[in-house]
Amino acid sequence: MGGRAEKLSSHLREYLLLYIILVILLAIPIGYKSATILETHKQQMKNVILTLAILTLFPSMIQLRSEQFGSELASKKLETLIALIIIFIAGPVAAILLAGLLPSKPVSIGFVAANSVPASSASIAYVLLAEGNIEFATLLAIISILGALVTVPGYIAFYAKSISVTVPIDLLGKSVGLALLTPFILGQITRYYLVKRRARKLLGDDNVKLPCKKTHIEKASLEEALAHLEEAQECIEGRIGKAIKPYLSIWTILAMLLLIGTLIAVKAGLLIKKPFLAAEILGFQGIIYAVIIVSLIIATKLLKLSYEDHSAMAFIALTKNESVAAAVSVMAIGATAALPAALIPSIQPIVAVIYLAALPALRNALKMKRTGRGS
Predict the structure, then answer these.
(1) Domain-by-domain residue ranges, the chain?
(2) For residue 188, what is the enclosing H or E element?
């Protein structure tokens, strides 16, 4: 069963872009033909979108290792600060400057939302492929989630006011809290019971033979024994995490495809009336990616960042969790505002894969050193 899950997970990841394009192409005619039904059940569709957004986020929150937060932050204070400036200032400010060029006010607000939301642990998969600093990437993902509780409603409210659109800040705060905190808390609780608690149980079971169990520590000192036990538990947690990862990946991708299809179907009429709107959104998004990449290169040169830390910062900054943007946009503004969150996932994997392929050349050009802290 595990082998089948791994094959399906690998297939979905490999052909994700193709599936996203296929879902969009199917959703437009279906949504256009069903426009009257969708309009009649507007509130129900809003609830469906919110539910799908939370379901998309939930698996990635299980994989976040929040217990590593403190130790990694202590050793990466300056790097963390620079990364957060790029994540919370460079991208969102660029989005605010470009959003006014979009022809629809709700869409422009949604564009700001799509570039203000945090990354998730799904972004860490790219860091893993790049052999970057996984612990640092996890730290940035967690801080970006917590910081987004303030910055997302702040940026949206600021931009909406600048274009004379009233968006209640309390409703924004509620929508961000619901979209982010609910899956985060549920994910960490699930992680504790599914991974950490099970690992402790297996560690204490003499009948379970695991390669990473330390069995010859009777003569070790207390400190050495505790270190061995901690190392063994981390090893077992890693094995459990690896075993469930294909299932979580399948869940995430299928929920995301359903979410994108639903968002596109709801606004199919707008896309047909304004066929160049999608191109404008994706074109402006490309500019934002360029701003982030230039900021990363400058930071790497000035701080002489290692290859592993650069990789962690890059993929956390470049890959946003658009499910959050979709949920916040629909709850606080309306389905039209969620259009950027539905379209951006069609190019985000392309940008990530291109950057992944360019990293070796970039490493040589910027003379980035390796520290051995990669995956």
Answers:
(1) 2-360
(2) helix 169-191
